[in-house]
User: Fold these one by one.
Assistant:
Number 1:
Amino acid sequence: MFTNGIGVHAPVNEVRWANTGDEKNQYLYSCSAFSFKIAYAYYPAPSRPDHIVTVTIDNKPVDSFILRANTRGSLMENKYSFADYGTAYGPHSISLKIVNANPSDSNNADSHINIIEPKLICRDQLSSFEQAKPKAGPSQPAPSPAPTSDPVATPTAVTKFVSDEPFIDEQNGYGPIERDTNIGDRAAGDGTGPVRIGGIAYDKGLGMHSDGQVSIDLAGRCSRFQSDVGIDDTAGDNGSVTFRVLGDGVLLTDTGTLRGTDAARQLDVDVATVTKLTLEVTHAGDNWDWDHASWGGARLTCAA
Ligand SMILES: [Ca+2]
Ligand SMILES: [Ca+2]
C-alpha cells in the first residue's frame, strides 16, 4: 500500500514506483502483486475525451485499457500478479501512464483522474485495505431506533449489519467509508458521532460521501436489505445525493435526489437472488459539497 489515492491530470501523466528503498516506496521485490482502481474525479463531463491507461512492469507494457469519457471510469480492481510477467521475485519498477486519447484535443479541463488505492501485496504484509477492521460504535446515551423486527424472518434468519461485514470493494468521495459513525473529515476513523438523519441517531450504519460505492458478498444467503438513508445531520441543511442499491450490477432501487432538508427515506429491498450487493451514493448532478451520505441501521436478513 502506498497511499489511499493519487490524483493525476492529463494530457500525459505517469506514476512510477521503483526499488529505491525510499520510505515512500516499498521494496517491490518482496511483493507478488499490484492492484489499483481508477476513475474520473468528475462525472459527468461531456466535453472530456477518452483516456488510455497503460500498466508497465519492468519497462514492459503488460496491459492497456481505455477509460471511457462518458463513464465515471472503472470501479473494478485491476490486479497484476508479477509471476505472470516473469518477475516471480517482484519487479524493479511498475508504472501507470495515463494519456489523453485525443492528441489534438487541448482542452484537458475535465481530465482529472484518481488512481484509487494503489496497492502492493507483499510478504509478511497486509494492505491497509485488508487491515481495515470494523470498529465498535460509540456508546449512545440518546435513544436510537433499534432495527424493527422483521415480519417475514423465519426463526432461522439472522440480522447482519452491513457495517460488520467485510467490504469486497469500496470507493468514497472523501476519505474512507466510516463504519458506525458519520463521515467526519478526510481521515479514517474521525467520525464525530453515530450516523444521524433528521435528529435520529443510529448505533449501526455507514458514513459515506459522494461519489461512493461499497459492495459486500451475500453468497445468496440473504433475503432483505433494509436501511434508512439521508444526508447526515452533520451537513445541516446542505448537501444533495442519491442513494442506489444494486444487486450483481442491476439497479434495485434509487431514491432520486435527497437533500439536507429531507427526512430519512426507508429502503426495503428484496435481495433473495443477489450475490454481490452494492450500495452507491452519487452527488445528484450538482456538486460534492456537504454530500455526507449516511446509511442508518443498514442491515440484512440472512439465513442463519
Ligand atoms: Ca473520515
Ligand atoms: Ca450533491
Number 2:
Amino acid sequence: MPSVESAVCERLCTNPIILSAVKAWRSIRTIEGRAQFSSPLTPILESPDFLLGCHDQGFRVWHNQGITKIGDLFDGQTLLSFLQLQQQYSLQKCVFFFLRYLQIRHFITKTTKQAWERDLDITIDDLDWQEVWVYAGKISICNRTKSTQFRILHRTHITPALKNKMDTNASPLCSKCNSETGNLIHCFWSCVKLQCYWSGIVKELLFLVFQ
Ligand SMILES: [Zn+2]
C-alpha cells in the first residue's frame, strides 16, 4: 500500500518516468536526512511534504493572496511574523488564518528542531528554539556569517559526512582530525582539534561572569 505522500505524487503526475525520478529523489533526500521541509520552493498546496495544504481550504486562500510556496513566508532567512504576513499579503486578521500560520510554522521548524534534539541528546524548549533563530539573524553585521549560521541551523551546511552522501568518492572524515565522521556535531563541537578553542571560550566566559 503506497504511503500518503506517494499517493499525492501519483495523483499529481501519471507519467511513469517522471514519477520514478521524483520517487528516487525523495528517497535520496530521506537518506540525506532532509525529509519534509528542505526547500523554500516547496509549494503550500498539493505538496506531498505538506499534507495539511492538500486538505485545508484555508491554505487555498493564502495561495490566492500570493503565498504559494514556503519561501514566501520568509524575508531573506527570517520567518515572517503573522503581523508581517498579514501586511505583506493583505491577509485578514482572524483566528482562522493565525491557526494556519501556527501550523505551518510548526511544520517548518519541527523537523530541524527534532534533528538537533536527537544529535545533542537534549530537549529544546520552544521559546529557546525561537530565540536561537532570532540570535542567528543578529549574530553579526556580516551577511556571509549570518548566512552560514542559518545554513548550520537548517542543517544544510555541507559537512564531509553530507558531501559523502552526495558523492561516495568524497571522504566522510573530518578534515581537521581526519579520524572521525565529519557530521555537524563533530565539526562544530566535539572534534578533538576544537577542544582548545572551546576551552578558551569557557575560560573567557568564566572570567567575565566571575571577575
Ligand atoms: Zn575532527
